[in-house]
Amino acid sequence: MMDVNEIREYLPHRYPFLLVDRVIELIPGESIVAIKNVTVNEPYFNGHFPGHPVMPGVLLVEAMAQAAGILGFKTMNKRPEDGSIYYFVGADDLRFKRPVVPGDQVKLEARVISDRRGIWKFDVKASVDDNLVCSATILCADRKV
User: Fold this and answer.
1) d(C-alpha 98, C-alpha 16), whole Å
2) Residue 46: what are its φ and ψ, rounded to 5°?
3) Active site residues
4) Each residue of 68-98: pLDDT tens digit?
5) Regions of the chain with pLDDT less than 50
């Protein structure tokens, strides 16, 4: 549904911090399903961990937040170029179930829980091969740049 070129229109992130490769399903105001392909050339694998590469958990949370950000921007029909930015402002009930390693394709899912005065609440999860790897409730703030 969205390739990386269109994703870059809705997220201000760029390499090496753009963590969403494709959007495969999006229902504005409701939910999104996106993909992050994890490859051994990711810059963080050199130090996390040498000989046993594991995707840092904070980057997995960031990937889920980026998917939620795309959903928020598409729902509001806004883009960063319009002077709006989404800040990740909190996470509750964060759980990691298993490591993500090179070769994994991570499915990122976000569902809108609420939107009040520019503070969005999302239920997010990440899975590999239909196995849950991470879940949380996250908060994002829509602010003018």
Assistant:
1) 23
2) -60, -30
3) 48
4) 999 999 999 999 999 999 899 999 999 999 9
5) none
